[in-house]
């Protein structure tokens, strides 16, 4: 049985029994259609039942029903069985679908590939590996022009400037050490 990561659970600092679910699907309706979620504890997948309390800007506030204790865990990956993945509408995808995609700028110049997709409380970040260096780009309309999964390509605005900015940031960071 194959599992696909679809997000993560974080503790809610305001409540002991509520958690924040950060989804790797930007479509709230897709998450609502999933009935069987799993977490990986001690290299074993455990079924968990979520009750959605409310949708927030970039994440979902949930209550976990009948689940083993996760009090020591800060971030817990959430999975679904591949066979249970909801079909997505055209133009939708899961974050893991972006892994390995070639990254190009609006002129068609290549700038590496997607190494990781990071979920944060402020949204999704793309970690791009290029010329043995890594830089981060937020997955928002201001940067992303188009995702072409059928060609394994993501087109991002101003990539040259972004990569140069990361070089400058890293240089300044290491100068202060």
Task: Please summarize what this structure is.
The protein is mainly beta. Helix content is 13%, strand content 46%.
Secondary structure elements and their pairing?
Blueprint: E1 3-11, E2 18-23, H1 28-32, E3 37-41, E4 44-55, E5 60-65, E6 75-81, E7 102-104, E8 110-120, E9 123-130, E10 133-138, E11 144-148, E12 153-156, H2 159-176
Parallel strand pairs: 7-12
Antiparallel strand pairs: 1-2, 1-6, 2-5, 3-4, 3-6, 4-5, 7-8, 8-9, 9-10, 11-12
Characterise this structure:
- The chain is mainly β.
- The chain is globular, with a radius of gyration of 18 Å.
- The mean pLDDT is 80.
- It has helices at residues 28-32, 159-176, and strands at residues 3-11, 18-23, 37-41, 44-55, 60-65, 75-81, 102-104, 110-120, 123-130, 133-138, 144-148, 153-156.
- Helices cover 13% and strands 46% of the residues.
Largest sheet: 6 strands, antiparallel, barrel
Percent strand: over 45%
The number of helical runs is 2
- Structural shape: globular
The largest sheet has its strands arranged as 1-2-5-4-3-6
Q: What are the low-pLDDT stretches, counting only 5+ consecutive residues below 50?
A: none
Count every beta strand, where a strand is a DSSP E run of 2 or more residues: 12
Radius of gyration: 18 Å
Keywords:
177 residues, 6-stranded antiparallel barrel, 2 helices, 13% helix
